[in-house]
């Protein structure tokens, strides 16, 4: 979706919780976690609800819809039932270029994402986290820091749906991991605290292959904020800084940096994170951080800034940073076998994520890479491959680009379409003291259901060695 479409959409009124009229027809496209959560909340708030999924709805979600007497269909879209909607909540996986979505918009029907719809029914303090990389770790870490002292839910792109949690638990605070696709369909959504971890090219197929459209989409997280709200962002990210030169942001800015002193926000000084908000300064040592790597120091800065804003005690923040166990499929240490460490970074679905993974390797590494290439430019990985990678295993249906790119950089490069075989080859290639790293830099859909399936297959293969 481009900026023009977005701005046009955002001017439309949305039937909110306050101006609520019973009997509005809510059509939900997509019968997954966010769709079914929205259906439950919509029904509870008096909407007439219909769920439609072009694919097959999983049995566990069908059971919920049946038990709650919510009308649904799967493996088809009945246009007459969909175009009779007052509001459509569409799954973030459905692109705007789909003919049905174009028809819905042409009919003047309001299209929203789950986070837009659900936020109408809560007075909670919302912390919204977006970015090309690091958002899952930052969201999970932020939730971990806050939950010691506050009633807080974790939702968005992670865990139970936001809508369902509002219906069943209605926490006082929510940490929301939010993708650009979810932000594309907001209208009034306004987080108290917004975090932008970084912006690198990703998902460009959804943005007409224009990086500027993707950047604008990420910045929608702050578009409804006022001077009473906060914007936490990476001040070392040139893409973010360039955008901010030409676009006014209303909220209070709290940047974080590894390289520069920040009067307001967070910076690194001799292995200490210094956070200053309105002359209130706290210091957090980094030597005992549970998470490794420079990128995780940044994630810790962002999460700690939120905790400081929400008045979490300094001691609680420090202890939580030191005992946080990390996120599954993100630089997850699986097992050490014959003094070789096996690391699952399946969540690295783009080059920038793999950059952070390779940067953090401190031993010779057998690197498992590959999958569905989203127009990747691997140049930024060359220094790490030359310095740290001893062998490459290409795991994908089409490995030609990887073989051409890295074939002359390493002595050993092998291709396979099977995770078990990839792990067995890695076992033979790795020596004591080495790492075996699954960090694909690609989407997973050629051989796996999703990155979670890929990561779990890797872990199972390692355990079966």
From TrEMBL:
Residue span, Mur ligase C-terminal domain: 329-442
GO cellular component, one term: cytoplasm
Molecular function terms, GO-annotated: ATP binding; UDP-N-acetylmuramoylalanine-D-glutamate ligase activity
Domain Mur ligase central: residue ranges: 129-307
Associated pathway: Cell wall biogenesis; peptidoglycan biosynthesis
Subcellular location: Cytoplasm
Binding residues for ATP: 131-137
Domain of life of the native organism: Bacteria
Pfam families with a match to the protein in the record: Mur_ligase_C, Mur_ligase_M, MurD_N
Family in the record: Belongs to the MurCDEF family.
Protein name: UDP-N-acetylmuramoylalanine--D-glutamate ligase
Species name: Winogradskyella endarachnes
Source organism phylogeny: Bacteria, Pseudomonadati, Bacteroidota, Flavobacteriia, Flavobacteriales
Encoding gene, per UniProt annotation: murD
């Amino acid at each position: 979706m481009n900026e023009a479409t977005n701005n046009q959409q955002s001017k439309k009124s949305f039937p909110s919780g306050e101006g609520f009229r019973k009997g509005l027809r809510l059509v939900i496209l997509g019968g997954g976690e966010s769709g079914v959560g929205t259906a439950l909340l919509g029904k509870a708030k008096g909407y007439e609800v219909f769920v439609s999924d072009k694919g097959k709805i999983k049995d566990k979600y069908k059971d919920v819809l049946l038990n709650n007497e919510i009308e649904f269909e799967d493996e088809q879209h009945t246009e007459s039932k969909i175009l009779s909607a007052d509001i459509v909540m569409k799954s973030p996986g459905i692109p705007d270029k789909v003919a049905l979505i174009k028809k819905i918009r042409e009919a003047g029907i309001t299209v929203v994402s789950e986070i837009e719809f659900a936020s109408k029914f809560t007075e909670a303090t919302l912390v919204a986290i977006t970015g090309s990389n690091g958002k899952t770790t930052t969201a999970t870490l932020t939730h971990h820091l806050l939950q010691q002292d506050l009633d807080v839910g974790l939702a968005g792109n992670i865990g139970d749906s936001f809508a369902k949690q509002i219906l069943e638990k209605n926490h006082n605070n929510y940490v929301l991991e939010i993708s650009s696709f979810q932000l594309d369909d907001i209208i009034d959504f306004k987080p108290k605290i917004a975090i932008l971890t970084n912006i690198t090219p990703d998902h460009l197929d959804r943005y007409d292959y224009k990086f500027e459209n993707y950047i604008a989409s990420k910045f929608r997280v702050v578009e409804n904020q006022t001077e009473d709200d906060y914007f936490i962002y990476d001040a070392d990210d040139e893409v973010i800084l360039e955008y901010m030169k030409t676009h006014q942001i209303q909220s209070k800015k709290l940047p974080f940096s590894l390289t520069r002193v920040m009067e307001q926000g967070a910076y690194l000084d001799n292995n200490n994170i210094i956070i200053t908000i309105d002359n209130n300064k706290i210091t957090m040592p980094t030597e005992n951080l549970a998470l490794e790597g420079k990128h995780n120091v940044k994630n810790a800065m962002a999460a700690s800034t939120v905790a400081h804003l929400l008045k979490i005690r300094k001691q609680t923040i420090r202890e939580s940073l030191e005992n946080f166990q990390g996120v599954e499929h993100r630089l997850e240490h699986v097992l050490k076998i014959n003094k070789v460490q096996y690391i699952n970074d399946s969540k690295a679905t783009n080059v920038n994520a793999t950059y952070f993974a390779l940067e953090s390797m401190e031993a010779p590494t057998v690197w498992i890479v590959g999958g569905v290439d989203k127009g990747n430019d691997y140049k930024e990985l060359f220094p790490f491959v030359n310095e740290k990678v001893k062998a490459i295993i290409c795991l994908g249906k089409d490995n030609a680009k990887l073989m051409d790119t890295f074939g002359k950089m390493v002595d050993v490069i092998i291709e396979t379409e099977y995770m078990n075989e990839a792990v067995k080859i890695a076992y033979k290639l790795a020596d004591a003291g080495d790492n075996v790293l699954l960090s694909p830099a690609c989407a997973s859909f050629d051989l796996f259901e999703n990155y979670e399936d890929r990561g779990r297959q890797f872990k199972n293969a390692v355990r079966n060695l």
